[in-house]
Amino acid sequence: MKAAVYTKYGSPEVIQIIDVEIPSPKPNEILVKIKASSVTRADTMMRQGIPKFGRLFLGLFKPKNTTLGTGFSGVVEAVGSQITKFKVGDEVFGEKLFCNGCNADYICIAENVVLDIKPNIISHEEAAPVCDGFLTSYNFLKDIADLKPGQHILINGASGSLGSAAVQLSKVIGAKVTAVCSTKNIDFVKSIGADKVIDYKKTPIAKINEKYNVIYDSVGTLSYKESKKLLSSNGVFMTPVLSGQILYQMLFNPKKVKFAATGIKKTEELKQLFLDLVGLYKQGKLQTHIDKKYSLPDIKHAHHYLETGRKVGNIVVVNP
Ligand SMILES: NC(=O)c1ccc[n+]([C@@H]2O[C@H](COP(=O)([O-])OP(=O)(O)OC[C@H]3O[C@@H](n4cnc5c(N)ncnc54)[C@H](OP(=O)(O)O)[C@@H]3O)[C@@H](O)[C@H]2O)c1
C-alpha cells in the first residue's frame, strides 16, 4: 500500500509517498481501507517540528513518528479476534492522534478510541476532517467556555476549520454568534449560521463596540490585551493557538484566558465529545465545508496550500 511519510523536519518537500506492507490488525484492532483523510494545520506543525520545544516529545533531531495524517474515514476490511462493535464492510471514521498514519491506503485502529460508524448522510470526505475543527472547537465551547444558550460569542477566524465548526456548534448550543472573517468569506460565514459578521479587513478589533460572554480566537491573531475590553464581567477569552503571549496572560488571568491542546485530553473524554458530534451529524445539524481535495500522491500540494493560511473550512486527501 501507499503511505505518506517524512523522515526529517522541514517544508512540504520532505514528504514522500512510499510502498509499505498493509498492516495486520491486533486482536483489539480493525483494519480500515481509507477513503478520505484530513490534512490539517496540526499535521503541518508536526512535519515542521514546531513549536521547537515540541521536539522534546516529537524527536529532537528528526521525527520519531514518520507517518502523516490524523483524521480518516473508510471501510472496515478486517477485524481482530476481540472486536465486537464493528464488522467487515462497516463505514467508520475517527482519528489516530498525532499524525498516526491516516494519509495512507490502510490503517489499523483500536476499537475503543475516537472511532464510530460514519453517519450515512455524510460522505467519507465530509467525515474525515470532523476530528480537527469540530472536535477541537466543541471541546473549547463545551468543556472550556461552557457556552450557554442566549450567550454572545465572538468567533475570530470564522472561515477556518475550527472557526467554521465553532460558528455551527455555537448556533446548535443556542448562542448568538458574531463571526470575524475577511470580505471574500462573508457569504460563506453567513451561510453556516453567523448572526452578524465583522470584516477584519475593514473593522479592527479596537473599533468593535459590543460585549461578549466568550471570545474564541480560533486562528490566534487577536491579543488578549486588545480584546479584554470586549469581554463581559465573567467573560472568557480562549484560543487553540499557543503563544508566549497567551501563556503569559494565562499566568496572570487564569480565569479569563484559556488555551488547551485537545489532543492530550483523556481518550474517553474525547470519545464522548466525538459521539455527541456523531449524533449532531446524524440529525443534519452540522456540515463539513471542504475547500480543496487532493490525491495521496499530491499531498505535498495540500501542505503547501495549508501554509498559505487562506483555506476555507477543510482540506482532504481522497483515495480512489
Ligand atoms: N489547540 C488545539 O487542540 C488545536 C487543534 C487543532 C488546530 N489547532 C490550531 O488552530 C488554528 C486554526 O486552524 P484552522 O485549520 O481552523 O485554520 P487556519 O488554516 O489556521 O486558518 C485559515 C482561515 O483563517 C482566516 N484568517 C487568517 N487570518 C485571519 C485574521 N487575521 N483574522 C480572521 N481570520 C483570519 C483565513 O481567512 P482569510 O483568507 O479570509 O483571511 C482562513 O479562512 C491553527 O493554528 C491550528 O494549529 C489547535
Automatic annotation (TrEMBL):
Cross-referenced Pfam families: ADH_N, ADH_zinc_N_2
Secretion signal span: none
Domain Enoyl reductase (ER): 10-317
PANTHER family in UniProt: ZINC-TYPE ALCOHOL DEHYDROGENASE-LIKE PROTEIN C16A3.02C
Designated name of the protein: Zinc-containing alcohol dehydrogenase
Organism: Xanthomarina gelatinilytica
Lineage: superkingdom: Bacteria
UniProt-listed InterPro entries: ADH-like_N, Chloroplast_QOR, ER, GroES-like_sf, NAD(P)-bd_dom_sf
